[in-house]
Backbone:
């Protein structure tokens, strides 16, 4: 049976570029792989045929010979191409490994540069998180605070190289400096982190006695942090380069300060606004008057209570709230009245209240309106 044209096998034209040939092979490899075609007995043969075609067309010299002589270029040993039928498993591994990184590179940590490029020798240090609790007053005014952060710092003994006496690391003999090794498993080439160098690509024959070759040591550092006015719970402050030191001289990570603002005994915060619940007596609510309320900056403000005020009534003090985090003015403060019912009354006080109640039938419009509605409701239910 005549062999199919290699270009036709990969579904590309004769003038296809190297990228188009690779793309065509990738498509066919996915489509025809035996693991995806368990119910198709011809899939394996077609899969090997696609592999054979790609093995020739990916190589510029073999491709030129094929374009000139066709399959005859390899039937008599010309060009040293694959045997008919593509039965050599090693040929498939070679062909498939060219597209392995494109298909799976992101999952293997290679980022598309797995085969050719050497792995980064020095690893970046980890970012660190520090949770910082501040009072509402500090969040209002801002502050400079010193914190202690346990972290990894560059080893002073070896200056971060990890080697004793300033010796230079050498390429790992297991992975030849790649940081990863490959193993053949059936049709697939599987890539793993090198067990000898743990993916660094280099080893240290004489590690530093202080840091044991890591290039960094554990230490508690004191840092001064500027907390700007207006921060709230969830605000994140980044300190670049103040995180964990990198492995073997790698760049330092960052430190992130996460702010949590404590609850306050007097004020409740909603974004830039503050709310303060102020109890007032029945007589003050009925007759009106002035009260003195605190403000978050430690000051005092006088607020006028209108006659006949009810519980829940709010009064606004403009610009007495929290400042905006990055400028733009301040929020407001809201005073919410809570009319307080007196307790532990004396006999005389009770007597006065009963007398007052008899005289105030027309002074409770909300009660009158409510009970009138209740009466209408009951009447409608009866009818």
Residues:
């Amino acid at each position: 049976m005549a062999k199919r044209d290699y270009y036709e096998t990969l579904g590309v034209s004769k003038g296809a570029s190297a990228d188009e040939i690779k793309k065509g092979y990738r498509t066919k490899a996915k489509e025809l792989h035996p693991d995806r075609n368990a119910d198709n007995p011809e899939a394996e043969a077609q899969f090997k045929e696609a592999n054979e075609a790609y093995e020739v067309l990916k190589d510029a010299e073999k491709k030129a010979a094929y374009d000139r002589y066709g399959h005859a270029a390899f039937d008599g040993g010309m060009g040293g191409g694959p045997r008919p039928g593509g039965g050599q498993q090693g040929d498939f591994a070679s062909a498939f490994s060219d597209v392995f990184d494109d298909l799976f590179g992101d999952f293997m940590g290679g980022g598309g540069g797995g085969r050719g490029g050497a792995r980064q020798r020095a690893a970046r240090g980890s970012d660190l998180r520090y949770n910082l609790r501040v009072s509402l007053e500090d969040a209002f005014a801002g502050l400079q605070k010193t914190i202690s952060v346990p972290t990894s710092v560059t080893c002073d003994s070896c200056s971060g190289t990890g080697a004793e006496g300033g010796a230079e690391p050498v390429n790992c003999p297991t992975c030849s400096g790649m940081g990863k090794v490959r193993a053949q498993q059936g049709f697939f080439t599987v890539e793993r982190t090198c067990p000898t160098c743990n993916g660094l690509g280099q080893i240290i024959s004489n590690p530093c006695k202080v840091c044991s070759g890591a290039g960094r040591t554990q230490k508690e550092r004191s840092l001064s942090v500027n907390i700007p006015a207006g921060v709230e719970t969830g605000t994140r402050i980044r300190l670049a380069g103040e995180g964990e030191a990198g492995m073997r001289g790698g760049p330092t990570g960052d430190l992130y300060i996460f702010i949590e603002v404590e609850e306050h005994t007097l004020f409740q915060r909603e974004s830039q606004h503050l709310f303060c619940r102020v109890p007032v007596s029945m007589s003050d609510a009925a007759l009106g008057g002035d009260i003195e309320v605190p403000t978050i900056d430690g000051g005092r403000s006088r607020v006028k209570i209108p006659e006949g005020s009810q519980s829940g009534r709010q009064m606004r003090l403009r610009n007495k709230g929290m400042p905006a985090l990055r400028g733009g003015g301040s929020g407001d403060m809201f005073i919410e009245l809570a009319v307080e019912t007196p307790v532990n009354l004396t006999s005389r006080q009770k007597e006065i209240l009963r007398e007052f109640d008899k005289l105030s039938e027309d002074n409770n419009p909300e009660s009158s309106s409510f009970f009138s509605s209740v009466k209408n409701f009951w009447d409608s239910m009866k009818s």
In short: The two ends are 98 Å apart (CA to CA). The longest helix spans residues 89-108. The domain at 118-166+207-263 is CATH 2.60.260.20 (HSP40/DNAj peptide-binding domain). The CA atoms of residues 286 and 308 lie 4 Å apart.
